Amino acid sequence: MQENKTVSIEDLLSNSEVKQITGKINQEIIERRGYQPPICEAFTKPFTILKENNDICLKIHSEAASQLPKMVENKVQDIEGIDLPDELLTTEYSLKRIIGIVFSGGPAPGGHNVIAGLYDAAKKANPESIIYGFLMGPDGIIENEAIKLTDDIIDAYRNMGGFSMIKTGRTKIDTQEKVALSKDTCKKLDLDALVIVGGDDSNTNAAFLAEEMFNDGVQVIGVPKTIDGDVQVRDANNNVLCAISFGFHSAARAFANSISNLCTDSSSDIKYWHICKVMGRVASHLALEVALQTHANLTLIGEELANYVDKSRIEKAHKENRIDYTAYGITLRHLSRVICNCIVKRAAAGKNYGVMVIPEGVLEFINEIQIFILKLNTIIAEYNETHDVDFHTNFLLLENKLEFLRRLATLSEDENKLSIWNRRDNDLFNDIPDFFQEGLLLERDSHGNFPFSQVETDKVLMGLVQDYLGILKENGTYKIGIHRNYYISTLEKGGVDPDCFGPVIFRNYDNGSELLLVKKTITSLKILKNSMISSGVIKENDEIPLAVEKIYLKSVPNFKTQSHFYGYDGRGTEPTRFDCNYTYNLGLTVFSLIAGGATGQMAAIMNLDHKFIDWKPIGIPIASLMHLEERKGKQALVLEKSVVDINSAAFRVVKALRDKWLAAEPGGDQYRCPGPIRFTGKSEEDRPITLVLNAIGGSGFNE
What we know:
Elements: H1 9-14, H2 16-22, H3 27-34, E1 47-52, H4 62-67, E2 77-82, H5 87-93, E3 98-103, H6 111-125, E4 130-134, H7 138-142, E5 146-148, H8 151-157, H9 176-188, E6 193-198, H10 200-213, E7 219-224, E8 233-234, E9 240-242, H11 248-269, E10 273-278, H12 285-294, E11 298-299, H13 302-306, H14 311-319, H15 332-348, E12 354-359, H16 367-386, H17 391-394, H18 398-414, H19 423-430, H20 434-440, H21 457-474, E13 482-483, H22 484-493, H23 498-505, E14 515-516, H24 525-535, H25 546-555, E15 561-566, H26 568-571, H27 577-595, E16 601-606, E17 616-621, E18 626-631, E19 634-639, H28 649-656, H29 658-662, H30 689-697
Parallel strand pairs: 3-4, 3-6, 6-7, 7-16, 10-12, 10-15, 11-12
Antiparallel strand pairs: 1-2, 2-17, 4-5, 8-9, 13-14, 16-17, 18-19
């Protein structure tokens, strides 16, 4: 027998196969890097030109006209490809250009392809053109920290996720000092153009920088990025100009794959409700897409909750000749009842398990929480403005903050005048759990927004749900349905007549139901025994037959939950083929806008909700997309976020299929398995399901 020799670690590590399987490059990465995204028809020509589209009408806010006078007259620009331009255009298009690009805000899958598309287009027009990548976000512009991008750098990140090439940051260029430093950086690098890849605040920044740098001859172009999907653009006639921001599809697919795995686990182990919180502070687009991808049993859409109207309250108030303003918009308590109702229905169908999807910012759509957030935002902003010490620095502990609020309420009462925080506010605030009080008093983010990702939304809701389920359990409403065949076989194995005990135990035994429900009045083994004694099926000194006891205990629910948060994993996933194609063409669009002399425009692709052949690159004036919004207690001009339209086809489909996906009936669940992001395969959908449904539900749908 041949003796096995242990291979030394040196020989093991030098082995070519070991090197291959332990290296950072696998076949998927090789194929990703080698993939060449298709390009829009306009980019198949040697040159592109810009044409103002006067048929598209945008509403311009008066404050935008006041603060951005040089940008506000911009029109939507169509990008068209041409074969033989005149000599002047050829010369202009082929100029050597120096362009800087920066990532701003959280990562989103596909960002590297924006850079790749811009780089390829600029080098194709003139190989001497230079693209600088600013490092660590806007700080790189302010501090003049940039790298010159090369073929090797670009090729290493093609079709790859993250923003690792140049990193990102959340600094805002929002003071005259920062603007001056940014202008100085652009001058030192001799930039012709600056490209800002980011969300609503970053594109807002782009508009103001375009205004500031207009006389310096530096063009500024924005690119719509956010996995939340809340950067969308429609014209004044509700026509879609930008259907979704890049990164949304990839993040939604990553979340959906993980949540689909939980659906499989839930229906296998049949003892947990998985509570899945997905990113989306202001809008529920991700939750909606995840619902379509997975068919989770229950998905909350914040925008629907905000539009809830309690008709019974309205009718009652009308009879009493008054107006009940609390009838408009859902309350936290009512929402917990809605969730409980779904849980109870599934339990009655023998399914005391399930999967629930909730958007990160769902609490912001709840009446009393909205009011608390608005009031506390204002209180904190006013305190910071009138004192030298930051509110959260001065009041480190929760008790310190609560004491400050108590003093405000007392002051309001003593001085007998209206105040932003009164005694009623204080009493209501004291009724909510300590951890939620602390959450509502967390330090606001750099934009003055409430940090929902740091609040245990699921804990807030599930605490109320647990309490109410306890009540429903005590009154006999919350019970697990028992399959008739299981009941019959169990009793027969125990030597007990099923038909003798069935009518005594179950409320629906005699109607032939497949699922049997224990009578509401039977809420304990003691009551069960008394019911059987009074019905004459056992005598007073008899014990409950073990088979009957087993069935009863099977009907008693034990509500268990597992909580999950999906956010950063979606930001860091590899992009889908849709996002790879989308972002590469956004990069090409950016260069065409720069070559055409545009500034203050956001690069966009029209018809994303249709097949790729219909995609059309355009430039959208950012100033026309802005409105006034409260930031840090003050009104500020910012890009308007887009929330879920509850009249959209996608939402109406989810609403119509809600009961089907709840599956509160005998039989299997309706879970859908989207699978992982299959970049190298051909079975992945070519665009988000949300966009497909909205295209079908709208006009001009193309197959």
